[in-house]
Amino acid sequence: MKVTTIAIVGRPNVGKSSIFNRLFGKKRALVHDMPGVTRDRLIEITEWWVRAKPYTMQIVDTGGLEGDRFAAEIEDQVNLALESASVVLFVVDGQMGVHPDDMHVLKSLKRAGIFEKKLIFGIVNKIDSDGHTSRLDDFHGMKLPSLHPVSAEHNLGIDDLKEKIIERIREERPELLESDTESEKWLEAPRIAIIGKPNVGKSTLINHLLGEHRMVVSPIAGTTVDAVDSLIQWGDHPVILIDTAGIRKRSKTEQGVEVLSVIQSQKALERADLAILVLDGEEGPTDQDEKIGGLVEANGCSLIILVNKWDTQKRSGKGFSQEEARDRIYEKMQFIRYAPMIFGSALKGRGFEDLKALVFDVLEQKKLKLSTKELSEWAKRAIEIHNPKDAKVYMAHQSGRHPPTFVFHVNDPAKLHFSLQRHMVNVIREKWGYMGSPIRTVFVKGKNSNRD
Questions:
Q1: Domain 4-184 belongs to what architecture?
Q2: Which of 193, 271, 285, 436 is the most exposed place for a label (fewest CB within 10 A)?
Q3: 372-445 architecture in CATH?
Q4: What is the pLDDT of residues 254-300, one digit of tens each?
Q5: What's the CA gap between 15 and 9, in Å, rounded?
Q6: How far is it, in rounded angstroms, from Cα 43 to Cα 24?
Q7: Whole-structure pTM over 0.70, yes or no?
Q8: Hey, do 4-184 and 189-366 end up sharing a CATH topology, with the first three levels equal?
Q9: 189-366: what CATH class?
């Protein structure tokens, strides 16, 4: 895909994530006063409208360089971001002035040859008014190709920055703006959220799926703070993988960053088409897994259950077969029995050969749209099989696909016992599939259109 990639770099706490959110157009990255909140690369594709013309851009946020915790891992992620970028935004703090770490990062970029290979923009953040533009003088000694004052917090100078970026690309790298119909496919690519409690191997799984060291992987629970998107090509299909922060029990979640990480995980589910719930094959299903599964169900997201670390379970000598483990998991989480389950080891890269095909199968079945005539005729017959209170269906129609939702017009909704509603869902699955997707049914009082 031809798309201009813009990497945002700089030392910690200069406002990189705030700038990322402004350039992306949504609050996507976590913004927090604590340095080092962003550890992995955050990647989003967005569409800029500059002078009434659309441009597809890929924005990459990176962790702050020169931080203490995870410093080496963050630097690796920044280097990967710089390799793929055509444009680099070097961000500094306009209120604080030049910091020694700014100069250290700048020297590192120059040693790596970034200034010769990329289009560099100096971004002086936290310039909140025209009167503060004099602070730009402090940064002229850094000899950046250009300096642009912005205030990400107050959305000042962002539109002008977009224009300057497009203008310079047009002058120096016009090939980056060549039209590409493939970019529209990426904008519409399905989003797959990798979810689960902390330290079950979510980031390791994504690293395996991507075939590169994409996430910061650490044995410390909670290493992933933000929800991190990765754009990949699976065969003929572009998809976006979302690595979410581990969801902890609320009683064990500290205020601050970890509360934000829970919110990000919930938001990831809200924008995902499908979730992969990662369970610990050695520990088995827990109450927290059950709660996370309930969160997926509540969001109406399609679901695949992935039992990770299955190799450690086999080595433990407990003797559980996959069938026995599957039964235990479904017994604990009855409400998501519709979710298919696979077993493997993300660390060893084993057992996931069929995952891609399964993902696309679930997504394809989710798209199925039934005609009102077909559904109504089926419902009138199906309800008679299990109907102790003589409920009547006059008409049925499908009102949505995300999740699949069916509305039944009946003589008396009070006659629809829960067991009958569950029966209708089961029969829908038997006849049409919808593997991996929750099914919603709504029963409303209707009129018999067949009566004279």
A1: 3-Layer(aba) Sandwich (3.40)
A2: 271
A3: 2-Layer Sandwich (3.30)
A4: 444 445 545 656 777 877 899 999 998 888 888 888 888 888 888 88
A5: 10
A6: 10
A7: no
A8: yes
A9: alpha beta
